[in-house]
Amino acid sequence: MFELLGIPPQALFGQLLLGLINGSFYALLSLGLAVIFGLLNIINFSHGAQYMMGAFVAWMALTWLGIPYWGALVIVPLVVGATGVVIERLMISKLYHLDHLYGLLLTFGLALIIQGLFRNQFGVSGLPYSIPPQLSGGTNLGFMFLPNYRGWVVLASLVVCFGTWFAIERTRLGAYLRAATENPTLVGAFGINVPRMITLTYGFGVALAAFAGVLAAPIYSVNPNMGADLIIVVFAVVVIGGMGSILGAILTGFGLGIVEGLTKVFYPEASSVAIFVIMAIVLLVKPAGLFGRTA
Amino acid sequence: MSASTETTYASASAAMPIGTPRHHIIIFAGLLVLLLIAPYVLYPVFIMKILCFALFASALNLLLGFGGLLSFGHAAFFGSASYVTAHAAKVWGLTPEVSILLGTVAAAFLGLVIGALAIRRQGIYFAMVTLAFAQMIFFFALQAPFTGGEDGIQAVPRGDLFGFIPLANDMTLYFVVLAIVFGGLLAIYRIIHSPFGQVLKAIRDNEPRSISLGYKVNRYKLAVFVMSATLAGMAGATKALVFQLASLTDVYWSMSGEVVLMTLLGGMGTIFGPFVGAAVIVTMQNYFASFGAWVTVLQGTIFVVSVLLFREGIIGVLSRWLKKPL
What we know:
B: two-stranded antiparallel sheet; ABC_transp_permease (chain B)
């Protein structure tokens, strides 16, 4: 069989797929961050913890209540999103008149609390969550073997990302949202309940993180630290993509996942720092990010 | 600097006038006396831990409280300095003062590189960029051949100061650490109360106005970033000798969070706040260590409560009650 640059194609496509899957999570999480940042102007540091919560709640739903994967995919984002609504109402809404850094610090504190609680309850060893039977097995694509579940993750992420982009950029509700980011007072004067919209936006962003968590549960072991390191990579993705743009979050997320996968093929030692190196280069050349409008 | 400009500075920021108010001298003197007595009453290593973190938090506060720049990646400087110092002392067999100096210089250099890139973004982006770079340093520490990976560098020899004063004794080391940390605190105090510090506060309070006044804002930001990184490195280097250990914990992002918490709890933008914050958090960690992950929950709760209800911090509140800058 043919070889590309001395790398066997199985290894290359395998890492590309792995990159694409990581990219799916980067895209979903940076999309959630971008949605929340757009309207609330808050960097949601607890995003990683909320992603972890999604995976755990899915595990709890299956183990304690017998709710299978497909049910969890719908219910978990709603449940975790609801906790987001409560957090926004009780805490974040008190900070809008302050410097943005307080929002970052508050959500950082929340992340510590959530991670600590889950660590106390479940330890750090990780819990298994099996792939739903409908998606077990794999498909032979001729050049590589594609596990069905992984294909589903990429597909689901693409659909949700596109749906969110469409809702924000192409619908009336999205137009209200975008208008409210520009001028909340004016939009409020038109009779739109801006505070409620802000609350629901936060809930939606958190639900996106939880949805990513449910998707991740069968791939990675469900453990309290699963969001902690991921969130920082996602921050780098956000800096590279530029926070102003929904499309930027999605494209950069997938793109960097793939770049990371390719690095793993050609120079494995650098794979965990590849994204940060790209961030440094982008900061030098285009400080506002690849898709960012203003710095 | 002419006398007239100096008065303008003084009147412009009534809260923190140039020169040294008498109560600051008294507090510094009292603190020094307290710290000279402390090792005879408490376990010296415990106080040295507080001292190292007090310097670390004060270094962050120089950047955050006075420069208005929230770095969420200061563990990078603290941690890499501790690695360099540990390596210099253990593998190269250098004397403690040279090892600490090397660690501090390494942190300064790293601060220059990361700072030059990070100041290109503002506000929360700045925080995210510093955090991301710190994570890059973390991965480097995890994989580089000389850092010992998960084990870190252990059993670092404390060596002999200047080649003839052995530091193996906790008491001897204590007074060396005290000298380093107190020197660092005084340096920070001096920086804050210099004309440079006044410009810094102007940039913090109103960056566009500072630019229109002709200040090269980015140069000031970079300068304070490097100073803060250097002092954080000095704290990390000292810590490596005290505990004879450099490990991944020093460079992990939760360390960056912890030092922000110390600053916030003690009082951002106050002089003595970070010291108090460090003392509180380190004491808490020492006494609650047996509760395991509940310490994380407690720290998170302190974060949330501080942000929601207690933004001025301990010393900030005290300062308001006494109507004096502390």
